[in-house]
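Milestone 3.1: sequence recovery, worked example.
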């Protein structure tokens, strides 16, 4: 390791006294973007300048903030520890600027939310204009990756998920239930002459999940229901499932809230696939004004739509 990262504490304090606090911006940008090029673009500076400022910051602090690999920049343990302080600096900067301009807006900064694609597209994003209008200095980043997000490692500040986090320094609250049912398009029911169906599912063509999604409650229900019968179509994401149902390819297990927005018909509800909706927040951030603001927004949004999220009406 470079000797600059192994100085005694006295040297470390001396080095910190030369810290340029403006360099915290490059630290935050790299943490959020994951790459030096992405951070450079976000800050509208050159890559060489960004790299130089990061090196200057690490040297001043006496710690390495990131590990570098082919996939980009990952926070070290020291970087994870310092991230809340850097974000506090950012918020303080926004507040200072607002106060200087006589602006009472105090909620500012960047919030990273991890959530499911369906919740983002059909619940959260359509409601965002009101939040953005109320807090123009607040910026939001929504991550809908299917991979597991580690709040403890600060992959995100908060998560709205159907899977309860089991580990990490996080605060968890159950907000409601996301109900699921078997859905078809009106044209599919008419063309297949199944509109007067007796409730049995054996004559339906099903749209199922790929191998990597077999842990999902909907996929497990399909496996139990079909008993070896192959699905007409396999997909790896919900948007493709919805498109397939709309195209009349078959039926699929979908959330009531989303399917009914699309005008699809619930042919069977109460199938035992309902999932709780959890709000998880990194505990170190639970008192942050920007985090509380987004958490309150999400909580109100889920509670206001609680019945619509949980319930569906079967045609049989």
């Amino acid at each position: 390791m470079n000797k600059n990262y192994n100085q005694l504490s006295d040297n470390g304090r001396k080095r910190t006294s030369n810290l340029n606090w403006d360099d915290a911006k490059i630290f935050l940008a790299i943490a959020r973007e994951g790459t030096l090029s992405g951070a450079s673009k976000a800050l509208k500076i050159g890559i060489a300048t960004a790299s130089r400022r990061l090196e200057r910051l690490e040297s001043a602090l006496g710690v390495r903030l990131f590990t570098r690999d082919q996939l980009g920049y990952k926070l070290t343990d020291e970087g994870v520890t310092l991230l809340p302080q850097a974000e506090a600096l950012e918020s303080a900067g926004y507040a200072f600027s607002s106060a200087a301009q006589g602006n009472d807006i105090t909620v500012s900064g960047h919030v990273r939310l991890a959530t499911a694609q369906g919740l983002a597209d059909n619940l959260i994003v359509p409601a965002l204009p009101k939040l953005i209008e109320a807090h123009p200095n607040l910026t939001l980043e929504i991550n809908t990756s299917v991979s597991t997000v580690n709040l403890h490692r600060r992959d995100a500040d908060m998560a709205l998920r159907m899977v309860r986090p089991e580990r990490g320094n996080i605060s968890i609250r159950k907000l409601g239930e996301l109900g699921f049912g078997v859905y078809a398009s009106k044209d599919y029911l008419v063309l297949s002459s199944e509109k007067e169906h007796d409730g049995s599912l054996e004559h339906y063509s099903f749209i199922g999940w790929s191998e990597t999604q077999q842990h999902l409650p909907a996929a497990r229900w399909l496996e139990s229901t079909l008993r070896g019968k192959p699905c007409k179509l396999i997909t790896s994401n919900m948007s493709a499932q919805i498109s397939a149902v709309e195209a009349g390819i078959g039926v699929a297990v979908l959330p009531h809230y989303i399917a009914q927005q699309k005008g699809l018909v619930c042919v069977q509800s109460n199938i035992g696939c309902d999932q709780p909706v959890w709000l998880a927040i990194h505990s170190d951030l639970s008192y942050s004004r920007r985090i509380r603001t987004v958490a309150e927004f999400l909580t109100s949004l889920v509670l206001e739509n609680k019945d619509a999220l949980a319930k569906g009406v079967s045609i049989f």
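The first helix runs from residue 9 to 16. The longest strand covers residues 170-178.
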